[in-house]
Write a structure and sequence with these properties.
Layout (H helix, E strand, L loop, with lengths): L1 E11 L6 H22 L7 H17 L1 E12 L2 H15 L4 H10 L2 H4 L16 H8 L4 H5 L5 H12 L10 H17 L14 E17 L5 E14 L11 H11 L11 H11 L6 H8 L1 H5 L8 E2 L9 H6 L9 E9 L20 H14 L4 H36 L1
Parallel strand pairs: 1-2, 1-6, 2-3
Antiparallel strand pairs: 3-4, 3-5
Helix pairs in contact: 1-2, 1-3, 3-10, 4-9, 6-8, 9-10, 9-11
């Protein structure tokens, strides 16, 4: 039977409030990887989903004569996709379970749990005049009734009213609250029973999380006239790799949580993420952060060199890089291969088919004042096409196919010459 690997490079788009929805998708991919590892090691599958994937792999072996192993070895994400990418990568490299994360999302990933207590309504009658606004947003007689099950409608309305009555012109959600939630999730995964690593020995896992440096850092460009100019670069990519090792080789929990916190710091909803905030949270929890300096030098090299890494404000990674294909493509270089490989890029778009202004038949109305501002500042940057990235992948695939064709055509001649020389 032929051995073959199906390697997945996962690119998780930003989805703002769809982090829990995207968790369901990444968890199914985790189930597939776990089932494939069990199938490879002749162990029984655990759980309903994994038994389905196990049976599928068995069928592929019986009908196609291929012993297929499916694995995730590259993960890149932004915003909500970045959060889920961090946890999926940690589960793959460590063998930890994502089940505690699911429980955490369902139990405490709540609007009220994330609200900054300093910015909430000061008393029960604060901003009572804003209640009609909350009712309008909730669509008291329409949208809530249409989208929320009856048992939860009163809770949704109450939380929306509290949200609207929070302090205005301040981020309603707390950065420390989110950071604590992320650390709790990583600790819950660590404390739960774990299995073996979901990648072959020596196969590295690479994780990339996009972040936006609000202040930016200078970058020098070599030109002709003038010979040099300086521009400000705001794009950052936090990169992690386990280098094919077991255990906690991907990164310290504080580093992974900080990456998830920074990439999902949606402007206006959360305050910018800072290293100082992480230090404060870790101090409150009594948690050490060994390797702090080396991480900052790697993740924030310009800021670290300038002595401002602690206070650099970092915001949502999807502001400038919502679909981080480039670091995932670059990670393809020098990856080990012991058997035939099929490489697939899988990108998770939480809102497929959504367009800010899809052209349609007939005359189109011009966008209004607020629609134009919101689109220019938030929606349009997130809707940039990925055509350039896909064309780059297509060119790479064409080059590989061309090399395989050349090798196949000269194989007989080479084998004949080897046989004539060595018998």
């Amino acid at each position: 039977m032929q051995d073959k690997e199906l390697r997945l490079a996962l690119v998780c788009y930003g989805g703002i409030s769809l982090a829990i929805y995207m968790h369901g998708i990444t968890k199914e991919i985790w189930h597939l990887a776990r089932s494939s590892r069990a199938h490879r090691d002749f162990e029984p599958a655990a759980g309903a989903s994994e038994r389905v994937y196990y049976a599928l792999l068995e069928s592929i072996g019986d009908e196609a004569g291929v012993n297929l192993r499916v694995m995730v070895d590259i993960v890149a994400g932004a915003s909500a996709g970045g959060i889920n990418g961090v946890f999926l990568a940690q589960a793959v490299t460590s063998g930890q379970s994502l089940d505690p994360l699911t429980d955490l999302w369902l139990e405490i990933a709540d609007v009220e749990a994330l609200l900054n207590p300093e910015h909430g309504p000061s008393h029960r009658f604060a901003k009572m005049w804003a209640m009609p606004i909350a009712w309008m947003l909730a669509g008291r007689d329409s949208s809530v009734n249409a989208t929320v099950e009856p048992a939860a409608r009163a809770e949704v309305r109450a939380k929306l009213e509290r949200f609207v009555r929070s302090r205005w012109f301040e981020p309603p959600f707390g950065g420390k609250q989110l950071m604590n939630m992320l650390l709790d999730a990583l600790e819950a995964m660590r404390d739960a029973p774990a299995g073996p690593r979901l990648l072959p020995e020596g196969q590295p896992l690479d994780l990339f999380v996009t972040v936006t440096d609000f202040r930016g850092h200078p970058e020098r460009l070599r030109l002709n006239s003038p010979p040099e100019v300086v521009e400000t670069e705001h794009r950052l990519v936090f990169s992690f790799s386990d280098h094919g090792q077991d255990g906690d080789a991907l990164g310290h929990a504080a580093e992974l949580a900080f990456a998830a916190r920074a990439t999902s710091s949606f402007p206006g909803a959360f305050p910018p993420a800072t290293v100082a905030e992480v230090d404060a949270v870790l101090a409150e929890r009594g948690t050490d952060w060994p390797g702090r300096a080396s991480f900052l030098e790697h993740a924030l090299p310009r800021q670290f060199a300038a002595g401002v890494a602690d206070t650099a404000p970092l915001i949502d990674g999807s502001v400038l890089a919502n679909a981080p294909f480039r670091p995932a493509i670059d990670a393809l270089r020098e990856r080990p291969a012991r058997r035939q490989i099929d490489r697939r890029f899988v990108f998770i778009d939480p809102t497929p088919g959504y367009r800010i202004a899809s052209p349609g038949p007939g005359p189109q109305e011009s966008p209004g004042f607020f629609r134009t501002i919101i689109g220019a500042l938030s929606e349009l940057p997130r809707q940039q096409p990925i055509r350039d990235n896909l064309e780059s992948l297509d060119q790479r695939s064409a080059q590989i196919e061309r090399m395989l064709t050349i090798i196949e055509r000269i194989r007989a001649e080479v084998e004949g010459q080897v046989e004539s020389l060595f018998g």
